[in-house]
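hiii, so i know i said id send this last week but things got crazy w the move. better late than never?? heres the sequnce for the chain we talked about at the cafe, plus the structure i predicted for it. fair warning i was half asleep when i ran it
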Amino acid sequence: MSAGCCGLRVGQNVPNFRLETFEPSKSDFGEVTLEALRAGGKWTVLFFYPADFTFV
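okay and structure toks below
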């Protein structure tokens, strides 16, 4: 596995990002940013599972 294959490694800081979200209970779209999550002062765990819970 080459050193450039993966964007981040365990222990590295995540760059700020902005994602579109969908809130099923409101049936509406929204947005989340890492900056807003950090401002909450709580731990944040990020994981990505491509194609899970998609609107297909």
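btw The helical segments are 34-39. thought thatd interest u
miss u guys!!
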